[in-house]
Specification:
mainly alpha; about 300 residues; 2 domains; 4 strands; four-stranded mixed beta sheet
């Protein structure tokens, strides 16, 4: 439940901040003076909605390195680091993307993530727990999974989706606020600028943001199956399945920051309602999907 709460809270915080910024900059007041031109409202919502999403994307590598204390491997200090760089380089060449930065972060839990605004300038990082608890062929598959995220352009695609959803959440919240403010009789110069309007907009953004979070989580789960298939192509299906089974044995929830959980490798079991907010499908479903894919392709690994 903690991960679900963090997902909802993060989305609410982003939308709340965007709403406050629009109030501080007088955007709603300016729109009110224009007689609530809904085309203008939609344009302003898009500016703030996409702006917030793309700022997060552009800062993703910097934030990842800072929050996870990622040690980026420049000159490898040992054989393990040399192997990591070589494996990522081989995967990147096969996938047709630029060589990412490769890093390690200190965590006892097996995990990894990929992030970055450009598929040719990404960051792939693995935890110390992943290196200590998995065989090398399994680590190779996890790295393939992350490179598949990069090659599929998942970071940008997820940002575009979040921008679209932010736009409509901001827009619809202001439409609802305007209608309710008008129903209360505020049809004069104060319409759209009072405290009642502000509170209504914030509440509407939170409710709509909840549904937006479900859509983002659904898309994130869908991407994981594609990244698993990509990892299987790069490192072998048996190795990819072995990596997921190793994660299942550990059976510990991810402690990645919320902003990066969608690009991690972990998965977990959940109840029906909880699944609506999970960024990853349950590991059993991912393993079953890979086994079905192998059977359908008629391959032996």
């Amino acid at each position: 439940m903690k991960r679900i709460f963090l997902l909802i809270a993060t989305n609410f915080a982003v939308l709340l901040l965007l709403g406050i910024v629009m109030q501080l900059f007088g955007v709603d007041e300016w729109l009110a003076r224009r007689g609530w031109d809904y085309e203008a409202v939609l344009v302003m919502s898009a500016i703030f909605g996409f702006g917030g999403a793309f700022v997060s994307l552009l800062l993703s590598k910097v934030m990842a390195k800072a929050t996870m204390r990622v040690h980026v491997i420049g000159q490898p200090a040992n054989e393990a680091e040399e192997w990591l760089l070589r494996t990522v380089r081989n995967h990147a060449q096969k996938a047709g993307v630029g060589m990412p930065e490769v890093g390690v972060f200190d965590s006892p839990e097996p995990n990894a993530f990929a992030t970055g605004a450009n598929r040719n300038s990404a960051l792939v990082a693995v935890s110390t727990g992943l290196l200590h608890n998995m065989r090398r062929d399994e680590v190779e598959a996890v790295l393939g999974h992350e490179i598949a995220h990069v090659a599929n352009g998942d970071m940008v695609t997820l940002t575009l989706l979040q921008g679209v959803l932010n736009t409509f959440v901001i827009f619809l919240a202001r439409v609802i606020g305007s209608l309710i403010d008008g129903a209360r009789g505020n049809d004069g110069g104060n319409r759209g600028t009072g405290m009642g309007y502000f509170v209504t907009v914030m509440l509407a953004q939170m409710v709509l943001g909840l549904f937006a979070s479900m859509i983002v989580a659904w898309f994130s789960r869908h991407r994981e199956f594609r990244a698993d298939a990509g990892g299987a192509d790069l490192a072998g299906t048996r190795s990819m399945i072995g990596a997921l089974q190793a994660l299942k044995r550990v059976h510990s929830p991810s402690r990645l920051p919320q902003s990066m959980q969608a690009f991690g490798i972990n998965g977990q079991r959940a109840q029906a309602l909880q699944k609506l907010f999970l960024s990853h499908p349950p590991l059993d479903e991912r393993i079953a999907a890979l086994e079905q894919r192998t059977a359908a392709l008629g391959r032996t690994f």
